[in-house]
Structures are given as C-alpha cells and as structure tokens.
Specification:
alpha/beta, seven-stranded mixed beta sheet, four-stranded mixed beta sheet, globular, Aspartate Aminotransferase, domain 1, single chain, 396 residues, 2 domains, Aspartate Aminotransferase, domain 2, 15 strands, binds 4'-deoxy-4'-aminopyridoxal-5'-phosphate
Length: 396
C-alpha cells in the first residue's frame, strides 16, 4: 500500500526541498503523536497557534456544539451569527474603545490586506510604511510589506508607495509624513528573531502617526492572545493602535483572523461602493465558536499571567556557551546561536530526541521557542535538558 509519506511527496505542493515530513496522527496538550508511537514535546504550537495546547476540551466541546447547529449560512456581514457577535463583544470588552469593531477574516494575511485597505480608504492616502525584516503574510499585498528583499524580488511589480524603515530607529520615524496612509508593525517582530522594540521607540511611533495622520496598524497575529504575558503585546508599551490584526491563536486552532478598529473607521467599507471588503468564509461560525471558547478560557483563567514566570524558568535553565543571547517577551523566545548551520543541526537533533523545535524565517541562526502557554514545569525541564544535550552534541 502506498504510504502517507509517498502521497505527501507525490501530491502535496511543496514549500521546501526539506520539509519536516513528520506524520502526526494525534495531538493533545503539549504533545504531538506519530503513527508508530512517536511522541514529540511541542515547543512551537504550530507557529504560535495552539496557545491552550492541542485538543483543548473547552474548545472541542464548543466546536462540536456549533457543528450540530450550522457551519456556514452566508457571506460575512449579513446574517446574525451568535459565535461571531459573542466573540466580537468579548474582544471589545477587553480592548480600548477605539478597537471595538471587529471585521472577521480567515487568516493573518487577509487581516493585513483588510487593515491596509481600511487605512488607505479612510485616509485617502496611498503610501504605506513597514519595517525591515517584517512579516505580515504571503498574499500579493502583504508581500509588498515584507521586509526582506529575497521574498519580494520575484513578484514585482509590487504595490507602489511602500517604504521599509529600519526597526527600532527613532530617526527613521521622520520618514512618516502626511502622504502616509498607515504604518504597519508587528508589535514584537517574530520572524526577525524576536526583536523587542524600546518603549521610547513605540511611544515615538505612536506620536508620529498621530501627528501625521497616518494610522498605526499593529500586527498581533503572533504576539496576541496571551503569548507575550499580556493579552495583547501592545499593552507592554502603553500605546493603542488605530487598527489591530489578529489570527493564529485567535481561532483556538481553527482558521480565523480579524482586523479591529473604531466603528467610525469601519464605516468606510459600506459605501462607494457598498461591500468595500468581502469574504465568504471570514468569521466562519465554527472557527468563531472555537475562538470564543479559547478567548473565554484565556481570560477567565488569566493563563497569560503565568507566562512570564514560565519564560523566566526557561531562561534560567538555558545556560550554555553556545547560546549568545536569549531574546523573549513571554513565551515568544529566540535562542540566538549566531550560526544557521549549527542551529539546524541542533534543531534536527532535538526532533530526533522527541522535542519539536523550529527556526525563524529571517533569523535561521535562532531557535524558536513558542510552546503552548499551558506548558508546565516538568515539561520545561525536559525540553531544556534536550536542548542543552543537543547543543553539546551538535558542537562535537
Ligand atoms: N503576521 C504575522 C506577524 C505572522 O507571523 C503571520 C504568519 N506567520 C502572518 C501575519 C500571516 O498569517 P497567515 O499565515 O495566517 O496568513
């Protein structure tokens, strides 16, 4: 019989010459399981998705209950669907007043597209500022915002009027002017290898946007939903964006994204022409039921308040001469090994030992650590022991 591996190789469009190609048949809590009884401790969460762990019972119950009622009834924005309205209300109750209107989409890339369209339409301006080493998605518009030339170069012409500034550079902010519709920034740039902006930079950015009338869009696709120790990472910097984008963990493991802004901003999509932004599946009822269950669990248990302590525990155990630097905000963490070849060897060895790790798109010399936020002490110890052993073995 043809194996799943062969089917994978023959029929799935590849994204790399060296995919992980590890089969997973089941996942629960912080563990992934293979068909032959293999067991992997998951330090990646499907790239910052499974913040409550895999197969969370609260989420699964909500999904099953909604599945019995309906899954899809109409394109986004027409019918009143309980999971959507309840999730939007729950978000509004935890966010500043100017982020009380939610537009649901399916993914992070779509949230980027919608947010930038909204900013252009509201301001009547064309230019967009993003940052070097930023990642906001792979669709054509989001690609124009990617801060890495190797990803942009094959898809020209890109959207004109996009400028990339050096990250965390106060002087560069003078480039934000009255022709600029919006400035888009990951609150903590993840794929750049977890780069923490200074408080002064974030506050100056907020001020510059307000002065110039450019809308500030913060991309919290990776940093939202408690990952950094606050519900949303912008809370660390005492600023509020004009538009917020969410995806990944937002759907509790199902595909869901959103961009949020004030009702006044969102109004622009309703006229000239009507239906200025459309999505068939955005805010899918089952995805929203999962997202709502995840949000309720996260906020009721205040799980995000345990994140900093867990991150400190990782940091205290991960002491090794090959780790040049650890950068983290909560459980979004980069172990900088400075050497991409060595880094890959360490990651491969960890996976062989049953610890699932990864690297970053624009920082292949760094190990990514982004476990489910529910991870406990014993598993943190186990993970760090494997990492330390692998750092030694890969160096030998
Ligand atoms: N923004 C950020 C910060 C991301 O990390 C990602 C995905 N890695 C996206 C946007 C795009 O999300 P998606 O893959 O759901 O389109």
């Amino acid at each position: 019989m043809i194996s799943h591996r062969q089917l994978f190789q023959q029929y799935l469009a590849p994204t790399s010459d060296e995919p992980l190609a590890i089969e997973i048949v089941r996942a629960e809590g912080v563990y992934l399981y293979g068909p032959g009884g293999e067991k992997y401790l998951d330090l990646i969460s499907g790239i910052s998705v499974s913040n409550l762990g895999h197969c969370h019972p609260h989420i699964n119950e909500a999904v099953e209950a909604q599945l019995k009622k309906y899954s899809h009834v109409m394109v986004y924005g027409e019918m009143i669907q309980a999971p959507q309205v309840k999730l939007a209300e729950a978000l509004a109750s935890r966010l500043p007043d100017n982020l009380s209107s939610t537009y649901f989409v399916n993914s992070g890339s779509e949230a980027t597209e919608g947010a930038v369209k909204l900013a252009k339409r509201y301001t009547g301006r064309a230019n967009v500022v993003a940052f070097e080493n930023a990642y906001h998605g792979s669709t054509q518009g989001a690609l124009s915002l990617i801060g890495d030339e190797s990803y942009r170069q094959n898809y020209r012409p890109l959207i004109p009027g996009h400028k990339h500034l050096p990250f965390n550079d106060m002087e560069a902010l003078s480039e934000i002017d009255r022709d600029c519709a919006c400035v888009m920034l990951e609150t903590i740039p993840a794929e750049a290898g977890v780069r923490i902006p200074s408080l002064a930079f974030m506050q100056a950015l907020r001020q510059k946007c307000s002065e110039s009338g450019a809308l500030l869009i913060l991309d919290e696709v990776q940093t939202g939903m408690g990952r950094t120790g606050k519900l949303f990472a912008f809370e660390h910097f005492d600023i509020v964006p004009d538009i917020l984008t969410l995806a990944k963990a937002f759907g509790g493991g199902l595909p869901l994204g959103a961009f949020l802004a004030s009702p006044e901003l969102m109004q622009v999509f309703t006229c000239n022409p009507v239906l200025g932004h459309i999505t068939t599946f955005g805010g899918n009822a089952i995805s929203c039921a999962a997202g709502l269950a995840a949000f309720e669990y996260l906020t009721e248990t205040r799980l995000y308040e345990t994140v900093e302590e867990k991150a400190l525990y990782f940091r205290s155990l991960l002491v090794h001469e090959k780790i040049s630097e650890i950068r983290n905000k909560g459980l979004l963490m980069a172990l900088d090994l400075k050497d991409p070849v060595y880094c890959k060897r360490v990651i491969d060895l960890c996976i062989e030992k049953g610890l699932f790790l990864d690297w970053f798109l624009f920082a292949p010399h760094c190990i990514r650590i982004a476990p489910p936020l529910i991870i406990e002490e014993g598993d943190i110890e186990k993970a760090c022991k494997i990492i330390l052993e692998s750092l030694d073995e890969a160096a030998a």
